[in-house]
Design goal:
Length: about 130
């Protein structure tokens, strides 16, 4: 098992930046592919970005490409989401999640992820 705790959310003006962090504890962190998802009020939780176990593969949803960067530090058991040029439509609760499948691929499906954090609120004002 792995426990995930997100931090770094907050209120920011449009065009601003935030860096989300996700700290993992428990089983060896490097065995998991990691993803960031977000859920806006009244909407489904959707994939935002993912990083493979090795960190060699990255994947982003089109709406955040060029603005968000996912990274990981396996030595520190952390995954990060650097968010730049934020827009009001980025407002949501952001969740990190761990995928324990034995693969160096990235899944965009919620069902592929076994463990979830509690989420951190990101609010972007216009």
């Amino acid at each position: 098992q792995v426990q995930l705790v997100e931090s770094g959310g907050g209120l920011v003006e449009a065009g601003g930046s935030l860096r989300l962090s996700c700290a993992a504890s428990g089983r060896r962190f490097s065995v998991y592919a990691m993803g960031w998802f977000r859920q806006a009020p009244g909407k489904e939780r959707v994939f935002v970005a993912g990083i493979s176990r090795s960190g060699n593969r990255l994947y982003y949803v089109d709406s955040v490409k060029g603005r968000f960067t996912i990274s990981r530090d396996n030595a520190k058991n952390q995954v990060y989401l650097q968010m730049n040029s934020l827009k009001p439509e980025d407002t949501a609760v952001y969740y990190c999640a761990a995928d324990s499948r034995i693969s160096d691929t990235i899944s965009t499906a919620k069902e592929s992820y076994d463990y979830w954090g509690q989420g951190t609120q990101v609010t972007v004002s216009s």
